[in-house]
């Protein structure tokens, strides 16, 4: 007997580019102290008030099956949040509550891709994007971008691939891994291309509360886009609820109706006490979101100061999200080789740019997820290490 090609081909074969991460975890398990600047995990836990609300809901008995589309009051709260921030009319019928943003990405692609469809996404990309597309039977097609253009996608590059019969386009702004925030001109070009080539647009907006420069614009708010856009949202980054696995899809009503049917046959919903905690968290408003985002804004400013005055390590303008994308090509090493050398020499773990696609080769991604003093010291060590390699 054999397993299905769909499940055995999720990663496409070969290395998934996460060797440095696994190596760092092995060192830690052996007792070595490693500064991990790899994954997007907050260095603070979920706010105690949210955990109290979760405990209250669980001990109060909300532990049975919850309604599959999501508790109506939470769907209404998410819809109100989206409408307030985008100006687009949104009701609870546009919302499906999902067990995290990753589940939402899978469901969105399953809803819009047939087996064998070409599905476009921007390179560099969040590591699971191509595997998510393969897992629904689609053909992942990366759209290259350039470091000198801050990795902003160009509409002509998208159009060239869309013209070959693509079904979907996946974008992510603020962007992981680059920290780039797509401006209105970029998003207008994406919208026009989506309409011209009849693409479904899947917009991953899980970092929408982490904006350091510019503004977050949801493409769903652009002319002609509300009926062809599926927005992915999550409580993980905005409310430091990564382990709670709570997110959503915002989509046209008829799409959500089908997604509910999918959820009935897959996840069967999200735990009620988790949903109650998420509703409580959203009710705390922007004050809590700003509190959770502030450390990353502060560390971005620290990074700019540390990187000033040297020309070995370059930084892609960090406009949002909890990451820095650093250009280390002056060292003569690939991002992967540099990351391994930094880990071996200084026990500092960063992600190679190659983990996120060919466009980020010669870069490393740094997660700003340790306390300020440790972050500053580690980044300075990274710079000094790069300078030593370049001389």
Give the topology, please.
Elements: H1 5-8, H2 19-29, E1 35-37, H3 48-59, H4 72-86, E2 95-98, H5 101-112, E3 118-123, H6 129-135, E4 139-144, H7 155-162, E5 168-172, H8 184-196, E6 200-204, E7 229-234, E8 247-250, H9 253-264, H10 272-283, H11 285-307, E9 314-315, E10 323-327, H12 335-346, E11 348-352, E12 363-367, H13 372-390
Parallel strand pairs: 1-11, 3-4, 3-5, 5-6, 6-7
Antiparallel strand pairs: 2-8, 7-8, 9-10, 10-12, 11-12
Helix pairs in contact: 3-10, 4-10, 5-6, 7-8, 11-13
Family: Belongs to the class-I pyridoxal-phosphate-dependent aminotransferase family.
GO biological process, one term: amino acid metabolic process
GO molecular function: L-aspartate:2-oxoglutarate aminotransferase activity; pyridoxal phosphate binding
Outline of the structure:
The chain is of the alpha/beta class.
Bin the strand percentage. Answer: 5-15%
How widely separated are the two ends?
56 Å
Name of the CATH superfamily of the largest domain? Type I PLP-dependent aspartate aminotransferase-like (Major domain)
How much is the average pLDDT?
A: 96
CATH topology label of the largest domain: Aspartate Aminotransferase, domain 2
Instruction: Give a quick account of the main beta sheet: strands, pairing sense, barrel closure.
Output: 7 strands, mixed
Question: What is the gyration radius calculated from CA atoms?
Answer: 21 Å
* Protein structure class: alpha/beta
Unreliable segments of 5+ consecutive residues: none
CATH architecture of the largest domain: 3-Layer(aba) Sandwich
Q: In which range does the helix fraction lie?
A: 40-55%
């Amino acid at each position: 007997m054999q397993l299905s090609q769909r499940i055995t081909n999720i990663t496409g074969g070969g290395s998934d580019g996460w060797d440095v991460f696994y190596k760092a975890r092995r060192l830690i398990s052996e007792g070595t102290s490693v500064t991990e600047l790899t994954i997007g995990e907050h260095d603070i836990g979920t706010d105690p008030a949210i955990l109290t609300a979760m405990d209250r809901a669980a001990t109060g008995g909300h532990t049975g099956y919850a309604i599959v589309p999501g508790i109506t009051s939470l769907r209404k709260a998410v819809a109100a949040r989206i409408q307030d921030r985008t100006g687009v009319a949104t009701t609870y019928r546009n919302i499906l509550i999902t067990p995290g943003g990753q589940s939402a990405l899978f469901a969105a692609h399953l809803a819009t891709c047939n087996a064998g469809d070409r599905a476009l996404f921007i390179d560099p990309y969040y590591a699971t994007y191509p595997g998510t597309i393969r897992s629904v039977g689609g053909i992942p097609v990366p759209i290259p971008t350039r470091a000198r253009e801050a990795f902003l996608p160009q509409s002509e590059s998208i159009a060239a691939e869309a013209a070959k019969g693509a079904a979907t386009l996946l974008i992510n702004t603020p962007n992981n891994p680059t920290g780039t925030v797509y401006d209105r001109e970029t998003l207008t070009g994406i919208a026009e291309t989506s309409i011209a080539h009849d693409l479904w647009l899947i917009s991953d907006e899980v970092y929408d509360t982490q904006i350091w420069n510019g503004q977050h614009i949801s493409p769903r708010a652009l002319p002609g886009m509300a009926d062809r856009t599926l927005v992915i949202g999550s409580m993980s980054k905005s409310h430091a609820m990564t382990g709670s696995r709570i997110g959503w899809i915002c989509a046209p009503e008829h799409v959500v109706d089908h997604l509910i049917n999918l959820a009935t046959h897959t996840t069967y919903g999200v735990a009620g006490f988790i949903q109650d905690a998420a509703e409580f968290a959203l009710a705390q408003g922007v004050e809590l979101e700003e509190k959770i985002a502030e450390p990353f804004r502060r560390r971005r400013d620290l990074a700019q100061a540390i990187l000033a005055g040297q020309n070995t390590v370059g930084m892609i303008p960090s406009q949002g999200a909890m990451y820095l994308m650093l250009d280390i090509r002056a060292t003569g090493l690939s991002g992967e080789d540099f990351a391994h050398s930094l880990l071996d020499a200084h026990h500092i773990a960063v992600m190679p740019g190659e983990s996120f696609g060919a466009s980020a080769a010669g870069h490393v991604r740094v997660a700003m997820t340790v306390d300020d003093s440790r972050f500053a010291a580690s980044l300075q060590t990274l710079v000094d290490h790069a300078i030593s390699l370049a001389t």
